[in-house]
TrEMBL record:
Its main location: membrane. This is ATP synthase A/B type C-terminal domain-containing protein. It is found in: Membrane. PROSITE patterns: ATPASE_ALPHA_BETA. One of its GO terms (cellular component) is proton-transporting ATP synthase complex. It comes from the Bacteria. Belongs to the ATPase alpha/beta chains family.
């Protein structure tokens, strides 16, 4: 099957304020976001929607839709990320979270892991005083810059030899600086630059298309964070063009869809069990409930950078192992294990 996907980087350059632009021509921002991340595959999109997006970007449909080009995944060895929302190398990743949900800890862990894999880490510090960023700005693997100009200088210098992880706050998205920077870097023959965008204020949670078009969207989950199930990534709403838009790995996609279906039903049952008790759901649903519990527990993971707080050594789990373990849980192969035995482990 030929892979086709939306040219997200072109949209990002041509239509920086995509939320307002989409609304002005009658498109729902959520629909545009889902097309960008692949939650709605291009094949299922209405032709009039694609034509409208091409009109906004002032391009042809052939320019808007990329055919036959593979999307490379950055394997983080963090189970829930690699399974549900793989990071697209060279793409833009948006973190959707309120303060306290663990997005900064996840970023620090990613910096640690990806630096070990040879990436250079650049953090654009937002204006003002942000004590919550101290764990990132004091991290010795991070190159901290305080202006978009300095970020640009570092990228064109380092990017010739090394792949880059670049992180910025949403304040730089709202000014349009991030999109201008990405546009300027197109003129250079650089290795991949993967951009992470976060919102320190947390207002991003209440908006449909808070960062503009993205390849990967990581939604953090308040319920998981409240229960100290980290990383608190929502497995149902987090999406990525690596899988859903590009059809790169059918085994991965099939396992992800099965896991997402189980967790969606488990969450429905959990709300009933919390109020009425386990005995109030049918016997057939009890198996789904317990397997959902086990899968949710398995998706927790100890981080290297959190060892001094948790007392647990960090764990890395490669994608193949994650897929095999998840399939085993889905098929009942872990039914003899309780959730405690699955919480904050690496592989089964």
């Amino acid at each position: 099957m030929e892979t086709i996907r939306l040219n997200v980087s072109l949209l990002r350059r041509r239509v920086p304020n995509l939320t307002s632009a989409a609304k002005s021509i009658g498109l729902r921002p959520a629909t545009v976001s889902n097309l960008c991340t692949g939650k709605i595959p291009i094949e299922r999109a209405e032709v009039k929607t694609l034509v409208a997006l091409a009109t906004l970007a002032k391009c042809s449909l052939d320019e808007l839709i990329i055919r036959g080009e593979s999307v490379e995944m950055i394997e983080t060895k963090i189970k829930t990320l690699d399974l549900f929302a793989p990071i697209s190398k060279g793409g833009t990743v948006g973190l959707v979270a309120r303060p306290g949900m663990g997005q900064l800890v996840l970023l620090r862990e990613l910096f640690y892991r990806l630096h070990d894999d040879g990436y250079s880490i650049i953090l654009l510090k937002p204006e003002g005083n942000h004590p919550e960023l101290k764990d990132l700005t004091d991290f010795d693997v991070v190159n901290v810059v305080d202006s978009i100009e300095k970020a640009y200088e570092q990228m064109i210098t380092i990017g010739v030899e090394q792949e880059i992880i670049f992180t910025a706050d949403r304040s730089h998205v709202l000014t349009g600086e991030i999109f201008e920077l990405q546009d300027q870097l197109q003129a250079y023959d650089l290795k991949s630059i993967t951009t992470f965008l976060l919102d320190l204020k947390g207002t991003v949670v209440d908006e449909d298309l808070p960062y503009g078009p993205l390849e990967t969207l990581l939604y953090f989950d308040a319920d998981l964070a409240a229960r100290h199930s980290f990383p608190a990534i929502n497995p149902i709403f987090s999406t990525s063009s690596v899988l859903e838009g590009a059809h790169l790995d059918q085994h991965h996609l099939f396992t992800q869809q099965r896991a997402r279906k189980l967790l969606r039903r488990y969450r429905e049952l959990r709300s009933i069990v919390t109020v009425r008790g386990l005995d109030k759901i049918p016997e057939a649903d009890k198996e789904i409930y317990h397997r959902g519990e086990r899968l949710e527990a398995y998706l927790t993971q100890p981080f290297y950078v959190a060892k001094e707080y948790s007392g647990i050594e960090g764990e890395s789990v490669d994608l193949t192992t994650t897929l095999n373990d998840v399939r085993k849980i889905l098929d009942g192969g872990a039914d003899s294990l309780n959730t405690k035995a699955l919480t904050y482990i690496g592989k089964l």
